[in-house]
Structure formats: C-alpha cells, structure tokens
Prior knowledge:
The protein has helices at 10-21, 72-95, 109-127; strands at residues 27-30, 40-44, 49-54, 99-104. The chain is of the alpha+beta class and 128 residues long.
Amino acid sequence: MSKQRSRDTEIEVALRRELHRRGLRYRVHQRPVRAVRREADVVFGPAKVAVFVDGCFWHGCPEHGTWPKRNGEFWRAKIEGNQARDANTDQVLADAGWLSVRIWEHEDPVVAASRVQATVLERRGRLA
C-alpha cells in the first residue's frame, strides 16, 4: 500500500492539464476549509468548488470497485470507512458554502474537465 500514489496520479494530472488548457486556474492539494484536515485535489477558491479524484478501489466505485476475498472484513471496513469519510467531507464543505465534485479515476479527463468547468463557471456567475 505504501507504493500507491496518493497525489499526482495519472488521471489527476490529466484532469489538471485539461482544466489549465481551458483557461481555468486553481490550487492543488489544499484544504478548502482550514478547520477540516482533508485536502481536495483541485481547489477553485473564489468559486468555492473542491474537486476530488477518487480511486475506484479505494473509494468503492459502483462500476469498477472490487471486494478482495483475502482479509475481506478488513478491506470492507476500510473501503466503507472511506465512503463514509467522503460523504462527511461533502457535507462539511456544503455547510461551509463549498461544492464538492467527485471524479472517478476511470472517467475520461476531458469529460470530467467539462463537468468541472461548467460547475465552476456556474458558481462564478452566481457569486458575481
């Protein structure tokens, strides 16, 4: 597990490249709400949009997530704990006026960037 990248994964870098190509500027690996020790992968501060790129295995993707047979109870608790933490993070950010966008690692970066861009532009329009 220590060999697994937790930041700058292939999909994360591809998403950031596409967002930058579209003229969007952002911060990388920051806490949207300082009081909460959880970092978003991409943060659009003025629009209050936090983007999380979730791995299919680690966050229990409904399409590609798998349940290991070996040490199954441990892994089920681990993955379900990650899902509960994700839901709590989304709620805490929503309470603080932020919007969470969740991207699965199997998503096409161009399609995901379009979704993020639409969300950011809509939030900017509402805040302006």
